[in-house]
Design goal:
This protein has about 325 residues and is an all-alpha fold. Helices cover about 75% and strands about 0% of the residues. Helix 6 runs antiparallel to helix 12. It is globular and about 55 Å long.
Length: about 325
């Protein structure tokens, strides 16, 4: 009796990896949401390519310093393919395309197109990585996507949309999804810090052609814009991408992609607190949908409780039945 009682309640440390991964994902989502506020300031003084390069350089320097302190070596050869692809697609191409695309379209269009990314992650993960697509994940992503579009439409101004902007946002979403799916296998061979550091370096090398723009614009940019660019590199890039990789190594790509649907809701809250932009009822409703969808997508069906069968005292026990 005592042994069955102990095994029925799992020890607290059994959930420790799951809780750490959830905490890492939360850090990522919060910092990525804060990036939208900083991009508004930095984007007024820096062009898309220069902003991406400055952000990646700040991130690479930060990550490189941490690697030196921790004495992290080079990733194994088996991880380099995924690191290179994620660095080219996600750290490099995605950041430039997104910065450029969001200058061409209004917020509603950007929300509609860019938030296709998590859906593509789930589909590519199922196709290339063999990830499962449980109904709760699909239902939660559908709810969150509707919420993200609602937030974007409610916060849109009178800006128009261009075909170029739509194409750039769509390419950014595809690059984001491809980068995440390529990063997942690399995390089986290298640490989250290694994958993030060298992926960031690959992205920075890809953006080196924008060096001239970065130097010229930095000379005329206000200090606040430059500080926001550095913030983007240190926190939403170096720290948040590392915590993302840590969490991604411990769950499926689809579930991690669905988690990012909490970002629009947090952007609404941060814009309210930091910029004094009071959200309307439609915006709040969209944010609530985003959070509800994330909760549904990350929920799991509870295992059925084992039924306790109490045999009558007069009935012979199973181990004794063979002896009778």
């Amino acid at each position: 009796m005592m042994s069955s009682t102990r095994t029925s309640s799992p020890a607290p440390w059994h959930r420790r990896p799951e809780l750490l991964a959830a905490g890492a994902a939360t850090v990522t989502v919060v910092l990525w949401a804060s990036a939208f506020v900083s991009i508004r300031s930095a984007g007024e003084a820096y062009s898309p390519g220069a902003l991406a390069l400055g952000r990646l350089l700040a991130g690479a320097l930060t990550l490189g310093a941490i690697c030196l302190v921790r004495r992290e070596g080079l990733p194994p050869r088996s991880a380099w393919r995924g690191i290179a692809i994620s660095g080219l697609l996600w750290f490099g191409f995605y950041m430039v395309a997104l910065n450029w695309g969001e200058q061409q379209v209004d917020a509603g269009t950007a929300a509609l197109v860019v938030n296709v990314g998590p859906i593509l992650i789930a589909l590519l993960g199922a196709r290339l990585l063999g990830d499962a697509l449980p109904p709760r994940l699909l239902a939660g992503m559908a709810v969150s996507f509707a919420g993200a579009v609602t937030v974007g439409l409610s916060m849109s101004g009178e800006g128009g949309s261009s075909l170029l902007g739509v194409v750039l946002c769509l390419l950014a979403a595809v690059a984001y999804a491809g980068g995440v799916v390529a990063q997942k296998p690399a995390l089986a061979h290298a640490s989250a810090l290694q994958v993030t550091t060298f992926g960031c370096l690959v992205g920075a090398v890809l953006c080196l052609p924008f060096t001239g723009q970065l130097v010229a614009e930095a000379a005329d940019a206000p200090v606040s814009a430059t500080l926001n660019m550095v913030y983007l590199g240190v926190f939403p890039t170096a720290l948040a991408f590392t915590t993302w990789a840590y969490a991604l190594a411990r769950t499926t790509a689809g579930r991690m992609g669905a988690t990012t649907y909490a970002v629009p809701a947090l952007v609404v809250l941060m814009s309210w607190l930091a910029l004094g932009e009071v959200p309307g009822l439609l915006t709040l409703a969209g944010g609530a949908l985003c959070l509800a969808g994330v909760a549904v997508s990350r929920s799991r069906r509870r295992p059925a409780a084992p039924s306790e069968h109490i045999e009558p005292a007069t009935a012979p026990r199973r181990e004794d039945a063979g002896r009778l």
